[in-house]
Amino acid sequence: MKDILVLGIESSCDETSVAVVKNGREVLSNVIESQIKIHETYGGVVPEIASRYHIEAINGVTKEALKRANVTLQDIDVIACTYGPGLVGALLVGVSYAKGLSYALNKPLIGANHIQGHIAANYICHEDLKPPFLCLVISGGHTHLIHIKNYTEFEILGKTRDDAIGEAFDKVARVVGLGYPGGPKVDKLAKEGTPNIALPKTHFENLDFSFSGIKTAIINMHHKNPDINKADLCASFEKTVTEVLIENTKRAANQLGIKTIALAGGVSANSYIREQFLKFGQEENLKVYYPEPVLCTDNAAMIASTAYYNYLEGNTSNMYLNAVPNLKI
Ligand code: KG4
Ligand code: ZN
């Protein structure tokens, strides 16, 4: 079969990213321009500012992605972009740009689901990984336990009823004064601490999650005792949320008789979570996969990968493609 080159575009939040990926798995380039430094001042992503920076960045990032891949636009077979979920103004930049390219070049357009993109990051890093498997998508916007039945067929088994796990990481970081984005900072500080603080865990009959209780408990603890050991608090937070993630994943794996687990999304870059899932995999005789850190957080290579599998299924989009901020998987 002829090689398929997909140009992927990601602009759902605060990263402008463009990638060229061959046959869904081989990354020829993956340029990521992060706006973190700009939003840091505000303690979080400011949607309007994000949209404006995407507009400024997207052309240059695309040129750089083509250059690094050593290809021209004529060599590209498919144009893909994230169309949801995400910030509407930010998404519209990528969607409009992709539509323009697709129309001008007369090449097929694929609107990709950002959550499916996070899952596909695992295909790039692990050539042996094939559906079916279970994927725990843990990011700033999502906490989903998903049965990946096929490359384009998904079933949500459980999800958060309130905060996404990444939001909880970012909130804990803010409370203890680590700043934004909090996840990587909590990860680092937790290594110096001992998980000796009891924190609440929420369980449900089904496979849903909840992280607002633990977040509030930490806010209250810190409020009552500002001298509390921050490293111990971060370590205890990580330990408690990881236990819940593993408990639900274990239940799902047992229920479905699935032996392969993948992690995805920004929070799957967390070193403690990765380590504990590997241990869990060894104990339960399960194969555990996660992407390399740069492919855990937002990037366009994962968007090109999921778009490739949709292209093979004939799931192309047309010029009516629009941003869908609350798109479900
Ligand atoms: O996947 P992502 O880049 O964007 C969304 O789709 O939401 O995830 C961003 C989230 C943020 O909440 C960030 O704090 C968290 O991922 N994150 C981490 C780590 N690296 C990023 N959380 C914990 N440990 C990390 N090392
Ligand atoms: Zn994401």
Give the arrangement of secondary structure elements.
Elements (H helix, E strand, L loop, with lengths): L4 E6 L4 E8 L3 E9 L1 H5 L6 H23 L8 E7 L3 H18 L3 E5 H12 L7 E6 L4 E8 L2 E7 L5 H11 L6 H9 L21 H13 L5 H27 L3 E5 L6 H14 L2 E3 L3 H4 L4 H12 L17
Parallel strand pairs: 1-4, 4-5, 6-9, 9-10
Antiparallel strand pairs: 1-2, 2-3, 6-7, 7-8
Counting DSSP H or I runs of 4 or more residues, the number of helices is 11
- Following the backbone from N to C, one meets helices and strands in this order, namely EEEHHEHEHEEEHHHHEHEHH
Beta-strand residue percentage: 15-25%
Task: Name the helicity range.
Answer: 40-55%
Task: Assign the CATH class of the largest domain.
Answer: Alpha Beta
**Strand order in the largest sheet:** 3-2-1-4-5
Shape: globular
> What is the straight-line distance between the termini?
29 Å
The biggest sheet amounts to: 5 strands, mixed
* Rg (C-alpha, Å): 20 Å
User: Which ligands are bound?
Assistant: 5'-O-[(R)-(carboxyoxy)(hydroxy)phosphoryl]adenosine, zinc ion
What is the CATH H-level superfamily of the largest domain?
A: ATPase, nucleotide binding domain
How many separate structural domains?
Answer: 2
Overall description:
With 329 residues, the protein is α/β, with parallel strands linked by helices. It folds into 2 domains: 5-119 and 296-312, 2-Layer Sandwich (Nucleotidyltransferase, domain 5); 131-291, Nucleotidyltransferase, domain 5, CATH 3.30.420. It has helices spanning 36-40, 47-69, 88-105, 114-125, 165-175, 182-190, 212-224, 230-256, 271-284, 293-296, 301-312; strands at residues 5-10, 15-22, 26-34, 78-84, 109-113, 133-138, 143-150, 153-159, 260-264, 287-289. The strands form 2 sheets. The chain has a 5-stranded mixed beta sheet, with helices on both faces. Strand 7 and strand 8 form a beta hairpin. Helix 2 runs parallel beside helix 3 (88-105), helix 5 crosses helix 6 (182-190) and helix 5 (165-175) runs parallel beside helix 7. It is globular. 5'-O-[(R)-(carboxyoxy)(hydroxy)phosphoryl]adenosine (KG4) binds at residues 13, 139-141, 166, 169-170, 181-184, 187, 265-267, 269-270, 297-298.
